[in-house]
Amino acid sequence: MKFADDKNGVPNNRELYALLHISPEATDEEIRKAYRQWAQIYHPDKYQAPQMKEIATENFQRICEAYEILCDENKRQIYDIYGMEGLTSGLELGPKLNKVEEIKEELERLRRQKEQEKVLAHVQPSGSILANLSLPQFLEGDGIMRGMAMASEVHSKISKHNAISLGGNLAVNGNSGGGAASVVLRHQISSDSSVEFMGSLGLRALIGVQTSRQLSLHSTATMGVAMSLRDGSINLSNTWSRQLSETTNGNIELILGPESSIGVGWQKKEQKNAASGEIKIGTGSFGAVGHYTHRFSLKSHGRIAGRVGSSGLELEVGGGRKVSNFTTIRMLYTIGIQGIFWKFELHRGGQKLIVPILLSNHLNPVFASGAFIIPASLYFALKKFVFKPYYLRREKQKFLENLEKTQGQVREARAAAEKAQQLLQNVANRKRNKQLEMGGLVVTKAVYGNRKALTTRNRSVEKVDEVASQIIDVTLPLNFLIDESGRLKLHDGVKKSGIMGFCDPCPGEPKQLYVEYTYGGNKYEAIVDDYEELLIPQERHRI
């Protein structure tokens, strides 16, 4: 049974499984067997010297804690879903919570409760500014500004179960303009249902009420009714949303009123890709939209979007770059029936600045090609000469800050890992000598740590001293973990820093394990990511 981390889809640390060197799928018997094997190595009664006895006691306590958690069905289920956080969150154990769904729902309830307490009385502002510019209009001498719009909203908790949102917007287009103000009061009826009361004045004056309810762990329904204060017309809306898979959601929306419509949409979000689409058919219109975003790295992404329907045809291509934790810049190129546009967007926190620039009202192929090439060239020039140097400086600064902050923690973890290796040494050496005699598997070098440091280490011997603080030698523990059949397996989905004799030498940085080994007189080499399975020997590793 495997679960993904809620935040980013990466498996939980599962360090207890790594500590006992077992799979997350291990049976109770396999857990007991692993515990007995480790206890033979680390039981304090085996050692007479005070220093060795102290090392054994410390590691034996870790083994006992892992065994107690993984042998208890409820505790293990909680640990599998939420790690150690779930075990320390106040979740009550007992016969009432004997299913994964029940445990997950209860832990979610506790999390929501903590979040509500944390954000109580917090104010969350958001807003946007849209400036429509026109190059043809400017060349004709009528000024460059086509129109402008501003919107702002403030969301605030007013009590444990109630929140209020106040918003307003103004828009000017040519010689006409208008505005609106709105208020939404939200009441949380229970952990899975809420109701909202809304009202607005201005261009779209209306009053309405909307209620939402979580029907199951994977589906939600929303129903609403709104009445226009201008003509008294009533709109009814129904939306059903369902989680189709771990990364995909679907929804159906039905609106009944003066402009009735039905829409079907879906959204899929993975670590590197995101896509969405919607088809909407109304009494007087129809349309379809689609978006696809690909993340080239943690900082940059590309985007393509299209829209077709009774109101127009449009294609949008572009990309964006994250320049800080709160700021993202996007450059987009749009071509459609309304003309050819450049669009620049600046997102910071909850605020957005959007500047569409109309380049031409006519779809000239030559002009359209030039309009696409110019911003693309500008983007790549900015990326190479401005963004990349800036990011490299920032990453280096953050790396040094993190290094300084975690120096003490890493020093202690290294010391604990070295002590654990001391007690493994005798058995590891016996296994190594036996494999050497048989011409079997022998790990000659293994290092674990910062991915960039390992790449540098493999590429240039002269730089070893610069990266030594970011890696740890784990040759001895890997030789110890070779089984009776002469094979070594590190399980998939288990973070390697939890393995006995390992530690995390660079918290917060992506890590890899690099292994050199011999088998049958031949040399082999393998490198795997932190959560990736390692199985040796394998012919494809042969040098």
Notes on the structure:
Its main location: membrane. It is found in: Membrane. Residues 15-83 form the J domain. It comes from Forsythia ovata. The strands form three sheets. This protein has a 17-stranded mixed barrel. The two termini are 36 Å apart. The protein is built from eleven helices and 23 strands. The longest helix has 41 residues, at 365-405. It is of the alpha+beta class and 543 residues long. It has helices at 15-20, 28-42, 50-70, 73-87, 100-119, 135-139, 365-405, 407-438, 451-459, 464-467, 475-480; strands at residues 123-134, 145-157, 162-173, 176-190, 193-202, 206-214, 219-228, 234-243, 248-256, 261-269, 273-282, 286-295, 300-309, 312-322, 327-336, 339-348, 351-360, 442-450, 471-473, 488-490, 511-519, 522-529, 534-536. The radius of gyration is 30 Å and the shape is elongated. α4 (73-87) packs parallel to α5.
Number of helices: 11
Q: Assign a percent range to the helix content.
A: 25-40%
Task: Report how far apart the termini are.
Answer: 36 Å
Q: Which segments are poorly predicted (pLDDT under 50) over 5 or more consecutive residues? A: 1-11, 93-98, 457-462
> Over the alpha carbons, how many angstroms does the gyration radius reach?
30 Å
Question: How would you summarize this macromolecular structure in one to three sentences?
Answer:
Helix content is 32%, strand content 40%. It is α+β, with helices and mostly antiparallel strands and 543 residues long. Residues 93-124, 396-437 form a coiled coil.
Ordered list of secondary-structure elements with their pairings:
Elements: H1 15-20, H2 28-42, H3 50-70, H4 73-87, H5 100-119, E1 123-134, H6 135-139, E2 145-157, E3 162-173, E4 176-190, E5 193-202, E6 206-214, E7 219-228, E8 234-243, E9 248-256, E10 261-269, E11 273-282, E12 286-295, E13 300-309, E14 312-322, E15 327-336, E16 339-348, E17 351-360, H7 365-405, H8 407-438, E18 442-450, H9 451-459, H10 464-467, E19 471-473, H11 475-480, E20 488-490, E21 511-519, E22 522-529, E23 534-536
Parallel strand pairs: 1-17
Antiparallel strand pairs: 1-2, 2-3, 3-4, 4-5, 5-6, 6-7, 7-8, 8-9, 9-10, 10-11, 11-12, 12-13, 13-14, 14-15, 15-16, 16-17, 18-19, 18-21, 20-23, 21-22
Helix pairs in contact: 2-3, 3-8, 4-5
Main location: membrane
Organism: Forsythia ovata
Domain J: 15-83
